[in-house]
């Protein structure tokens, strides 16, 4: 773990809340300004991070502005040190981090340059907030990260268990860590399912609650559900769309199919079309206030 303690709380950060998301502010962040300024303390911070064993593994993947975002999160008191990687993906890497009072949190660090827009495109089409920034990678990613934060809040409010969102800074999302001291919580495909029938019912209820709140996950499967201490948790909600999105029905059908197919392989009497029909008939998304 990197020591980051000397970067004490310097100034208050405004928390990001669900409503702010609707405005989709993608102007330069504090982290961009720090990166440009390159003051001595920031340079020291970056050097130290780069020199630690943990970071040699993922070495050099962070650009200045990402280091600056982490630095800002340290300054703002959200994290004290960065730990080992939990997952390395195409769009983002997830790390453990140490928060004040010895708490562990998870940070999801999105790549800006390496990020592949093709996967994002389907979800961005038809979302008016992305219309004017579609060609600008950095802005799309920054908006995406805020969207993920907002969606976590929405899902939580709808009664769906998700990692608690904690903060966003530029391309970094800080959230509740799922897992224990020895390892991060396994995804559903890797977990020992004592009772798949009950697990299926829980996931079914999660999809219904999300839909009722006007949201469709859009990438739901055994890989974006984790089992934390016996509890099912929905993760990776950056791409979730509202029911008004032109592809929301198709996404919901696909989510239902993925989930039902997984549980059918586990021996549960589950079927994607039945699940879809259940969700649609049992929820009233027009009452919801989804803002994905
Ligand atoms: N809050 C968390 N606590 C612990 N582990 C997490 C948390 N969030 C994500 N992970 C782990 O990191 C992995 C990747 O996270 P996530 O699905 O959000 O990112 P992704 O962009 O889809 O990456 P990938 O392409 O690898 O799926 C998850 O499968 C899970 O194992
Ligand atoms: Mg994922």
From TrEMBL:
Q: What is its EC number?
A: 2.7.11.1
Q: Which InterPro entries match?
A: Kinase-like_dom_sf, Prot_kinase_dom, RIO-type_Ser/Thr_kinase, RIO1_kinase, RIO_dom, RIO_kinase, RIO_kinase_CS, Tyr_kinase_AS
Question: NCBIfam families annotated for this entry?
Answer: Prot_Kin_Rio1_Halo
Name-wise, this protein is non-specific serine/threonine protein kinase
Reaction equations catalysed: L-threonyl-[protein] + ATP = O-phospho-L-threonyl-[protein] + ADP + H(+); L-seryl-[protein] + ATP = O-phospho-L-seryl-[protein] + ADP + H(+)
Concerning its family, UniProt says:
Belongs to the protein kinase superfamily. RIO-type Ser/Thr kinase family.
SUPFAM superfamilies cross-referenced by the UniProt entry = Protein kinase-like (PK-like)
Q: Which GO terms describe its molecular function?
A: ATP binding; metal ion binding; protein serine/threonine kinase activity
What domain of life?
Answer: Archaea
User: Which portions of this protein are annotated as coiled-coil regions?
Assistant: none
Enumerate the spans annotated as Protein kinase domain. Answer: 80-292
Q: Read off the CDD domains from this record.
A: RIO1_like (cd05145)
Q: Extract the PANTHER family matched here.
A: SERINE/THREONINE-PROTEIN KINASE RIO1
Gene symbol? rio1
């Amino acid at each position: 773990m990197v020591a980051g303690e000397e970067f004490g709380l310097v100034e208050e950060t405004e928390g990001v809340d669900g409503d702010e998301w609707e405005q989709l502010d993608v102007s330069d962040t504090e982290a961009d300004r720090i990166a440009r300024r390159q003051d001595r303390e920031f340079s020291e911070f970056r050097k130290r991070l780069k020199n630690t064993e943990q970071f040699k593994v993922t070495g050099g993947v962070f650009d200045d502005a990402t280091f600056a975002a982490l630095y800002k999160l340290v300054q703002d008191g959200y994290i004290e040190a960065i730990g080992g990687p939990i997952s390395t993906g195409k769009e983002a890497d997830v790390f453990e981090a140490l928060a004040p009072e010895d708490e562990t949190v998870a940070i999801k660090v999105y790549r800006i340059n390496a990020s592949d827009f093709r996967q994002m495109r389907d979800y961005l089409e038809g979302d008016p907030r992305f219309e004017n920034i579609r060609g600008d990678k950095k802005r799309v990613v920054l908006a995406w990260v805020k969207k993920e934060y907002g969606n976590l809040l929405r899902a939580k409010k709808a009664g769906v268990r998700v990692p608690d969102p904690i903060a966003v800074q530029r391309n970094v999302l800080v959230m509740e860590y799922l897992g224990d001291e020895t390892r991060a919580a396994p995804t559903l495909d890797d977990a020992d399912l004592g009772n798949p029938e009950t697990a299926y019912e829980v996931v079914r209820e999660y999809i219904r609650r999300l839909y009722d709140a006007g949201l469709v996950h859009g990438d739901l499967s055994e890989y974006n559900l984790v089992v934390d201490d016996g509890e099912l948790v929905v993760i990776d909600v950056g791409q979730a769309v509202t029911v008004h999105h032109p592809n929301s029905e198709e996404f919901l059908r696909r989510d239902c199919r993925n989930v039902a197919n997984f549980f059918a392989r586990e021996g549960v009497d589950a079927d994607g079309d039945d699940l879809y029909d259940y969700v649609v008939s049992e929820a009233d998304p027009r009452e919801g206030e989804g803002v994905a």
